[in-house]
Design goal:
The protein is mostly helical. It is built from 21 helices and no strands. It has helices at 2-40, 43-64, 67-80, 84-119, 126-133, 136-151, 155-179, 184-209, 218-253, 256-270, 273-292, 296-323, 325-332, 341-356, 360-366, 371-395, 397-423, 430-452, 459-479, 485-498, 503-510. Helix 2 (43-64) packs antiparallel against helix 4. It is globular. The two termini are 20 Å apart. The model has no long low-confidence stretch (mean pLDDT 81).
Length: 513
């Protein structure tokens, strides 16, 4: 078991290291671009852009038909059983379905743009939606093609074509727009092109390096893939409802400037999920292969260790966002976004709860169970809609944040409970809980001291606080003797992948493990 878990962890960490570095770099570049756009546009214009991106994302998710996750699971399952031809047939089927579905979705978005604008009372959004409709096929095909490379554990493709190239292109073109003081129309054009150009390049790259020839009948696998993916589509739709209901209902009940304020806070809190995404991309095919070989205990241990590391890496970010939201918003977005401070606190708590429970949904889907995650998402979506309907008119964007945080907590709690009941899998070991509680208590003490002495939290102080919270957690791991043997395996994998010399860390750990 130790060898299998160790090999799985090394594969996850090696892939996740590339993914995390690339995605963090991509996020940083995107964040710079977002700040430039926020400062260049008025809150009302940024609200229109954010609303349009939300509708565009929904259209793309519908057109994906649940295929990215379905394709990855089915192809990885067949590879785990040594059935290569069947896996390639799944690739072909996924590509054909995506082409048709993306064209239908693009047409639907273009035709319905005026109706959407009229329904939400935003007449200025119709032309933006029509422009975004031309990017739907590229975005949908990109998601499907990346999932093909995910089966081969090619994290570099995801990093280059989904994280770096679109964001670098977007920021570069935005800088040109700002320098030339061009209109809002050109800002929208930049966003559209940042989807189309990388999609075309990825398509050419895929046909050059991926084999699609197989002796299997592709039409048979279209049916197999659709039947497995349709529940995932429904789950994806529910996920969109959970993700975007708050933004859409803020647009319905409040002003477009409120959409801009909330979107700024949500993007900050959502940054914690990047740690989870960096692991899921490579974790999902690996855990699917473990299940194909009936290695349930190894699945559980891999899940527990990975979740512990996810919590560890996101905890310092959560502490800074939760305890010092005004300083973060003022530093990054400017004084106009400080009214979103309470929303940022609440959203940070909700997203951190999601990260704390790790890749629970993907682990359950890897076992072939797509029904319960869909049921849990259904309950969460209904809860989200009802809470937003009640809380937004009463409390504005803070009410929307409460609705989202409770929704994420509900859905993840249900999924984790099912995973535990069916397979006995959970992350809550003593070595997970002890350092987390110690760090939270210490961080709360730091916050109370800063408030008692009315300390000003500027940019340098935020950086120092992040380093302090990171150090506090590491010390709590040592003092509570919460390092596991698998943690050493992960550190060795990080050392190997990044070419670092962590011998001094290992010398310290030997005294506490």
């Amino acid at each position: 078991m130790d060898d299998i878990v160790g090999d799985s962890l090394r594969r996850v960490v090696k892939g996740a290291a590339i993914f995390l570095i690339g995605s963090v770099l991509g996020l940083f570049i995107a964040f710079i671009g977002r700040i430039i756009v926020i400062r260049y546009l008025t809150p009302a214009e940024f609200g229109l852009l954010s609303f349009s991106i939300t509708v565009f994302t929904i259209a793309c998710s519908l057109a994906n038909l649940g295929l990215p996750a379905g394709l990855t699971r089915q192809a990885a399952y067949f590879f785990g059983r040594g059935e290569r031809e069947r896996a390639i047939a799944i690739f072909r089927a996924g590509l054909l379905i995506s082409v048709v579905a993306s064209l239908v979705a693009a047409t639907g978005l273009f035709v319905s743009s005026d109706l959407i604008a009229e329904f939400f009372g935003m007449p200025g959004v119709s032309w933006i939606l029509r422009m975004f409709s031309f990017a739907v096929p590229a975005a949908v095909l990109s998601a499907t093609l990346v999932s093909v490379f995910q089966v081969y554990e090619r994290v570099d493709v995801k990093v280059v074509f989904s994280d770096l190239l679109p964001n670098v292109l977007r920021v570069a073109l935005i800088v040109v727009v700002v320098i030339l003081t061009l209109s809002f129309y050109w800002v929208v054009s930049v966003y559209v092109l940042s989807y189309i150009i990388p999609g075309i390049v990825l398509l050419a790259y895929t046909f050059r390096f991926v084999e699609f020839k197989t002796s299997e009948n592709t039409s048979k696998y279209i049916r197999i893939l659709v039947l497995f993916s349709l529940p995932l589509l429904f789950q994806s739709v529910l996920g969109m409802i959970i993700t975007w209901t708050d933004t859409l209902m803020i647009g319905y009940f409040l002003a477009s400037s409120d959409v801009g304020l909330y979107s700024g806070a949500r993007s900050l809190a959502g940054a914690m999920q990047n740690f989870l995404a960096s692991v899921i991309f490579i974790y999902f095919p690996i855990i699917s292969q473990l299940y194909a070989r009936s290695q349930i205990k190894e699945m559980g241990r891999t899940y527990a260790v990975i979740t512990k590391w996810l919590m560890s890496t996101s905890l310092p970010v959560f502490l800074v966002l939760f305890f010092f939201p005004e300083a973060v918003l003022w530093l990054l977005y400017g004084e106009a976004y400080i009214p979103a401070a309470h929303a940022l606190q609440i959203l940070a708590l909700g997203f951190f709860t999601h990260v704390m429970l790790g890749p629970n949904g993907m682990t359950l889907i890897a076992t072939g169970n797509v029904r319960f995650p869909t049921l849990a998402s259904s309950i969460a979506a209904i809860t989200n809609f009802a809470l937003n309907l009640v809380l937004i008119p009463l409390y504005g964007i803070t009410g929307a944040a409460v609705a989202s945080a409770l929704t994420y907590t509900t859905g993840n709690a249900l999924t984790s409970a099912k995973l535990y009941m069916d397979y006995g899998i959970h992350p809550f070991t003593r070595n997970y809980v002890k350092p987390c509680l110690a760090s939270l208590a210490t961080a709360a003490l730091v916050y109370l001291i800063s408030k008692a002495f009315s300390l000003h939290i500027g940019s340098l102080a935020l950086v120092l606080l992040f380093v302090a919270f990171l150090s506090i957690y590491f010390l709590s791991l040592l003092l509570t003797r919460s390092f596991d043997r698998e943690d050493i395996m992960i550190m060795l994998a990080i050392e190997e992948r990044l070419g670092l010399d962590l011998s001094w860390v290992k010398r310290i750990l030997r005294r506490f493990v």
